[in-house]
UniProtKB/TrEMBL annotation:
GO molecular function, one term: DNA binding
Protein name: ABC transporter substrate-binding protein
Domain of life of the native organism: Bacteria
Keyword annotations: Coiled coil, Membrane, Phosphoprotein, Transmembrane, Transmembrane helix
Chain segments annotated as transmembrane: 762-780
InterPro entries: Ig-like_fold (IPR013783), Quinoprotein_ADH-like_sf (IPR011047), Sig_transdc_resp-reg_C-effctor (IPR016032), Tscrpt_reg_LuxR_C (IPR000792), WD40/YVTN_repeat-like_dom_sf (IPR015943), WH-like_DNA-bd_sf (IPR036388), Y_Y_Y (IPR011123)
Organism classification: Bacteria, Pseudomonadati, Bacteroidota, Flavobacteriia, Flavobacteriales
Chain ranges of the HTH luxR-type domain: 915-972
Coiled coil segments of this chain: 799-826
GO BP annotations, alphabetical order: regulation of DNA-templated transcription
Organism of provenance: Flavobacterium pectinovorum
Length: 975
C-alpha cells in the first residue's frame, strides 16, 4: 500500500502543472453535447469508451463497437456471437481488446478501413467457455486481462490462463500498477504473477459492493454502491465524508474517474455526475436538469483534449470540463434570450425577453445549487432591455417603461413608449437620461428616489445606444448614423444637434455604434473603431485599436473592465485586450470562440465584476468565464477520411469503417493502398471529419484533389465532396480541418488511380497505332490506286482520245485509202483488166498458136512416113519435136504463172502448199479452172485432148479429196 501511495505522489508531482491549470470550474455548468440513440442510430445502452492514438472515439454499445469521428457514428464490428460489448481496452498499436457477453477478443483496422474481430474464446478449453459478461478489459504491459463475475482470463503470448472463483467475483479494480479483485467469499484479493493473493484482513470488504478504487495520498479510496466513500489505510477502513454523501448514498455509485487535477468524478445510477474535490467538497452536480440527457452513468473517460465522455444507459454525453466557459443554469431553466446582466447586493440579475430574473449569486458560487435558481421579478413579463445600478437603486428598462427593482417586485417609475437604457448626465448625478423608442426622457433623484420629469423636446429618434462626455450626448442609430446632442440648461430640450454618417468619414452609415473608453468617445463601424479628429472634426480610424483589431471587422461591442482591459465583439469573435506593464496590449480570442453565433444580434452584452467574473448574455442563456482556468487551444489533432465510395455502381465502397459494408472482393494489400478503378467508376464521393470534438459542428474543412484541381478549396462546413467524370489519372485526395480555435489539423490523404477506358488503354493505343498505320497504308494505297485509276483513266482517256484521233485519222486515212483504193482499184482493175486482156490475148494467141501447131502436127502426122525420104522424115521429126517443145514449154507458163499469182493472191503457191501431191500439169489445169476456162479451152493450153482434160480433172479431184458430187471448178474458185 505504501508503494501505491508513493506512486500516486510521483504521478501527482508529474501532473502538478496540469492540476494547477486544469481544474474543473465550480461556477456554472460546463458545456454539454448530448448524443441520443436517434443521433448515433444504435442501441441506447453504452458501457465503455476509449480513444485511439489518432483521436478516434470508440464506445461499447449493445450492438457492437461504435465509432465516432466527430461527424459520423458507425458500428464498426461485433463479437462473433453478436452479443453486446461491455468493456474496451487498447494497446500502443491501436489494437482494441473487447469484452462481450460470453465472448472476448480483439479487433484492428484493415487498410480498407474495416475492423476485423478475432475471438479468443477458441483458445479456451471447452470446460472454461461458460461465462457471462466480460465487465472489464485491461491492457497491462504485455498481457490483457478480461474480467467476468465467473472467471478472470489472462491473455499472454497467444495463450490464456483462466482463474475461476468458487463463489463468483464481485468487482475488479485496476489501481496504478496493481490489480485488485473483490471476491464474494474471500473478500479483497490482489492479482500477482497470475495468482490471486488475499489482502491482509481482506474479509472486511465482504458485502461493501465496492464499485471503484483509487490510490490517494490518504490511502486507497473505495467507492461503494450505496454506502458512500471510504479510505483504506493500514488495514483499516474508515468513511470519507463528503458534501455529496446525501446524493451518493441515495442514488448509487456506478463508476468514477480521478481527474488530473485531483478532483473525483462519480457516476451514479439515478442522479448523473457528481464531482468533488480531494477534501470532499461538492464542485459540480450535473444531472438531467443541468443538461445531462440521462441520469444513469455507466462509465467516465477523458479524451486528449481534456473533455469528459459520459456513457449512459440511454445515450452519450460530452462534457467540456476543460473549457473556462460555463453556463449559469439552475433547476428552473427559466431564462431565455439575455440582453443584460448585473450583480447587485450579491444577487445576479438577468434581463430577458420574458422579464427580469435574479438568483443568490453568492450561494451559487459556493456550490449551494440545489435550492438556488433564478426567480422572476413580478411586474415585468416582456422584453427587459437593460438593468443597471444608479445611485442606490436598481433600475430596469422595459418595453412598457422604466422600473425600480425592490426585492422580488418591480415598481413602475414611468410608463413610456419603451425604454432602452439609462445613463447619468455628467456632473449631475441627480439626473438620469433614459433612451426611449422615440426620443429621450429625464428622471431626477428626489429624496433617494428617481422621479420621472419629462420627455426631451426636439429629438424623436430611437435612442438605444447612448454615451456622454463632459459636454455632449452621443447617440448611435444603427441604420442612420451618429447624433451629437447638447441639451439646454433646463435639460428639457435639445439646444444643438449634429449628425455624422458616411459623409463625415465613416466607412458606412449602417451599423454604427458608440462607446466611452477612458473618457474618450469611440465609434464602432463595419471597418474597425473610429474616433473624431479634433481639428477637422472628421471621423478617422483610431490608431491604437487599428493596431490590435484592424480595419476589417464590424466592431459590435467595446467595453472596459475595472483593470482597464478591453472586452470587444469584433465580427464573429469575442476577445479581450489585456494591458501590459509597458502600455501595450495582448489580444486573446480563442477562449471565447464558443460564443460565436450565440449573441442576440444587435444586443451583444458583456458584464465584468471586480471579482474577475465575466458574464456573456446570449440567446442560449448566461455564460460565465473564469480567467484563472487555462486551456490548451493549440492541441494537435487529425483530419480523417471516413469513407470513399464510387457513385456508380451505386454506393460501391472503397474505404469505410462501417460494419460489414465492403464487398469481399475489394482487398488492398498492406503495402499497396492505391486502388485502381475502372473508368466506369470515375465518379467518387468522399466523406471526411476531424478528430476534434470541441464544437465539432463549427469545424471547417478544405480539400484538394491533386491531379484534378490546382489548389485547395475554400474553408467550409462541408464534410462531403463529390467528383464526377474524372479522367484517367493518378489522384491524391487531401483534406484538412480547422477547428473553432483556428488550429489546422494534420492532413489526411487517399490515393487512387482511375484507369482509362478500354479505348484509351496502352493496348488500345497500340491497336490505334496499328489501325492508324493500316489506315495510312490504306489511304496511301487508296490514293495510289486512285492515282493509278486516274492515271489509267487518263491513259484510257488519252488512248480513247488517241483512238478517237486515230479513228478519225483512220477514218480520214481510210477515206483517203478508200479513195486511193478506189483509184488503185480502178488502176488495178484497169491493170488486171489489161493483164487479163493480155493474159486472155496471150492465152487466146497461145490457144490459137497451139491450135495451129496442133493442126500442123496433125498434118505432119498425116504424111506417109513410108513414102517420104529419110531426109524429109528426119526433118519432119525435128519439126514435130520443136512443136512438142513449144506445146509443153515453160517459158510462156512461167510468165503466165507470175501474172496469175499477182492477180489471184498467190493462188498457185497456196494450192501447192495445201496439196503438195499436185503435179505442174495439175497446177496448170487448176489455174485454168480458176480462170473459169472450160474443158475445150483448157485442152489446147495443155496440149492434150478434151478427153485428156477430163482425165486430168478426175485425178485432181482425187488429189483434192473431193466427193464425186462436188464441183471442182467451184472449189477452185473459192480457194
Amino acid at each position: 500500500m505504501t508503494k501505491c501511495i508513493i506512486r500516486f505522489l510521483v504521478v501527482s508531482i508529474f501532473f502538478l502543472p496540469a492540476i494547477i491549470s486544469a481544474q474543473i470550474k465550480k461556477i456554472g455548468v460546463p458545456f454539454i453535447t448530448n448524443y441520443n440513440p436517434k443521433t448515433y442510430k444504435a442501441a441506447s445502452e453504452n458501457w465503455d469508451v476509449l480513444q485511439d492514438s489518432k483521436g478516434m472515439m470508440f464506445f461499447a454499445n449493445h450492438f457492437g463497437i461504435m465509432q465516432f469521428d466527430g461527424v459520423r457514428w458507425n458500428i464498426v464490428t461485433q463479437p462473433e456471437n453478436k452479443s453486446m460489448v461491455r468493456s474496451l481496452a487498447i494497446d500502443k498499436n491501436d489494437r482494441i481488446y473487447v469484452g462481450a457477453q460470453c465472448d472476448f477478443g480483439y479487433t484492428f483496422q484493415l487498410p480498407n478501413g474495416q475492423y476485423k474481430y478475432t475471438s479468443l474464446v477458441k483458445l479456451l478449453p471447452v470446460s472454461s467457455r461458460n461465462f457471462g459478461d466480460v465487465l472489464h478489459t485491461v491492457v497491462r504491459n504485455n498481457e490483457v486481462i478480461f474480467f467476468s463475475n465467473e472467471k478472470i482470463f489472462i491473455y499472454k503470448n497467444n495463450k490464456i490462463k483462466v482463474i475461476e472463483s468458487t463463489s463468483n467475483f464481485d468487482e475488479f479494480f485496476n489501481v496504478g500498477t496493481s490489480i485488485y479483485v473483490l471476491d464474494n467469499r474471500k473478500g479483497l484479493l490482489k492479482l500477482k504473477d497470475d495468482v490471486l493473493i488475499p489482502v491482509e484482513k481482506g474479509q472486511q470488504f465482504l458485502g461493501m459492493k465496492i464499485r471503484k478504487a483509487f490510490a490517494t495520498k490518504d490511502g486507497l479510496m473505495l467507492l461503494t454502491q450505496k454506502n458512500g466513500l471510504f479510505i483504506y489505510k493500514n488495514n483499516l477502513i474508515k468513511p470519507f465524508v463528503t458534501e455529496a454523501d446525501y446524493l451518493l448514498k441515495q442514488y448509487q455509485i456506478t463508476t468514477a474517474i480521478l481527474f488530473p487535477d485531483g478532483y473525483l468524478g462519480i457516476g451514479t445510477r439515478q442522479s448523473g455526475l457528481i464531482v468533488i474535490d480531494s477534501t470532499g467538497h461538492l464542485i459540480q452536480h450535473i444531472n438531467k436538469q443541468m443538461g445531462l440527457q440521462n441520469e444513469y452513468v455507466t462509465n467516465l473517460k477523458t479524451d486528449k483534449e481534456g473533455n469528459l465522455w459520459v456513457t449512459l444507459k440511454e445515450g452519450i454525453s460530452l462534457i467540456q470540463i476543460s473549457s473556462p466557459l460555463s453556463r449559469i443554469l439552475d433547476t428552473s431553466s427559466s431564462e431565455t434570450k439575455i440582453y443584460c446582466s448585473q450583480i447587485y447586493q450579491n444577487k445576479l440579475y438577468i434581463a430577458t425577453d420574458n422579464g427580469l430574473f435574479w438568483m443568490d449569486w453568492q450561494a451559487y458560487k459556493n456550490g449551494k445549487r440545489e435550492n438556488t435558481h433564478f426567480q422572476h421579478i413580478s411586474g415585468m413579463s416582456e422584453n427587459v432591455w437593460n438593468v443597471g445600478v444608479f445611485g442606490k437603486s436598481l433600475l430596469a428598462f422595459e418595453k412598457n417603461g422604466i422600473y425600480e427593482i425592490k426585492g422580488n417586485s418591480a415598481q413602475l417609475l414611468a410608463k413610456t413608449d419603451g425604454a432602452w437604457q439609462g445613463i447619468n448626465i455628467p456632473n449631475r448625478p441627480d439626473l438620469l437620461l433614459v433612451g426611449g423608442y422615440n426620443g429621450m426622457h429625464l428622471l431626477k433623484k428626489i429624496n433617494d428616489s428617481w422621479v420621472y420629469q419629462h420627455k426631451i423636446k426636439g429629438f424623436q429618434e430611437s435612442s438605444r445606444i447612448i454615451v456622454t462626455d463632459n459636454e455632449s450626448i452621443w447617440l448611435a442609430h444603427g441604420y442612420k448614423g451618429i447624433f451629437k446632442i447638447k441639451l439646454n440648461k433646463t435639460f428639457d430640450a435639445v439646444s444643438d444637434l449634429q449628425f455624422y454618417n458616411q459623409e463625415s468619414g465613416f466607412p458606412s452609415s449602417l451599423f454604427l455604434n458608440t462607446f466611452k473608453i477612458n473618457n474618450q468617445i469611440l465609434f464602432g463601424t463595419t471597418k474597425g473603431i473610429y474616433k473624431q479628429d479634433k481639428t477637422s472634426k472628421k471621423m478617422i480610424p483610431d490608431a491604437v485599436f487599428k493596431k490590435y483589431l484592424g480595419l476589417e471587422n464590424h466592431i459590435r461591442l467595446l467595453k472596459a473592465d475595472n483593470q482597464n482591459n478591453f472586452w470587444y465583439v469584433s465580427g464573429e469573435n469575442t476577445g479581450k485586450m489585456t494591458r501590459q506593464t509597458n502600455g501595450n496590449f495582448t489580444v486573446e480570442e480563442l477562449p471565447f470562440r464558443k460564443l460565436r453565433y450565440l449573441y442576440v444580434p444587435g444586443f451583444e452584452n458583456i458584464q465584468t465584476t471586480t471579482n474577475g467574473d465575466v458574464f456573456f448574455g446570449t440567446q442560449d442563456g448566461l455564460i460565465h468565464y473564469n480567467a484563472t482556468k487555462n486551456k490548451s487551444y493549440q492541441a494537435k489533432y487529425k483530419a480523417i477520411i471516413s469513407e470513399v465510395k464510387c457513385i456508380l455502381p451505386k454506393d460501391s465502397l472503397l474505404f469505410s469503417s462501417r460494419y460489414d459494408v465492403l464487398p469481399n472482393n475489394i482487398k488492398l494489400d498492406k503495402n499497396e493502398l492505391t486502388p485502381v478503378l475502372s473508368h466506369s467508376n470515375n465518379a467518387l464521393h468522399f466523406s471526411f471529419a476531424s478528430l476534434c470534438y470541441d464544437e465539432a459542428d463549427a469545424t471547417k474543412y478544405e480539400y484538394w484533389l491533386e491531379g484534378f484541381e490546382e489548389k485547395w478549396s475554400d474553408w467550409s462546413l462541408q464534410t462531403e465532396k463529390e467528383y464526377t467524370n474524372l479522367p484517367e489519372n493518378e489522384y491524391i485526395f487531401h483534406v484538412r480541418a480547422k477547428n473553432i480555435y483556428d488550429v489546422v489539423s494534420e492532413e489526411a490523404i487517399f490515393k487512387f488511380e482511375i484507369s482509362p477506358p478500354w479505348y484509351r488503354t496502352s493496348w488500345a493505343y497500340i491497336l490505334y497505332l496499328l489501325l492508324f498505320g493500316v489506315l495510312i497504308y490504306a489511304i496511301i494505297k487508296y490514293q495510289k490506286n486512285l492515282a493509278e485509276r486516274d492515271r489509267e483513266q487518263l491513259i484510257l482517256n488519252q488512248e480513247k482520245e488517241l483512238l478517237r484521233n486515230r479513228a478519225e485519222l483512220n477514218e480520214q486515212k481510210l477515206a483517203l485509202e478508200q479513195q486511193n483504193m478506189a483509184i488503185m482499184r480502178e488502176n488495178l482493175e484497169a491493170t488486171i483488166n489489161l493483164k487479163n486482156a493480155k493474159v486472155a490475148s496471150s492465152t487466146v494467141n497461145l490457144i490459137h498458136l497451139n491450135e495451129i501447131l496442133l493442126s500442123i502436127k496433125e498434118l505432119i502426122g498425116q504424111i506417109d512416113k513410108k513414102n517420104d525420104t529419110n531426109v524429109n522424115f528426119s526433118l519432119l521429126t525435128k519439126i514435130n519435136r520443136l512443136i512438142d517443145h513449144e506445146l509443153q514449154g515453160d517459158q510462156h507458163w512461167n510468165e503466165f504463172e507470175e501474172i496469175f499469182n499477182q492477180l489471184h493472191d498467190n493462188f498457185m503457191q497456196r494450192l501447192k502448199t495445201s496439196f503438195p501431191e499436185l503435179t505442174p500439169r495439175d497446177m496448170r489445169l487448176c489455174a485454168y479452172l480458176r480462170m473459169n476456162f472450160n474443158t475445150k479451152e483448157i485442152a489446147p493450153l495443155l496440149g492434150i485432148s478434151v478427153r485428156g482434160v477430163e482425165d486430168t480433172r478426175y485425178r485432181i479431184r482425187k488429189k483434192l479429196q473431193l466427193s464425186s458430187d462436188a464441183n471442182i471448178t467451184e472449189f477452185i474458185l473459192n480457194f
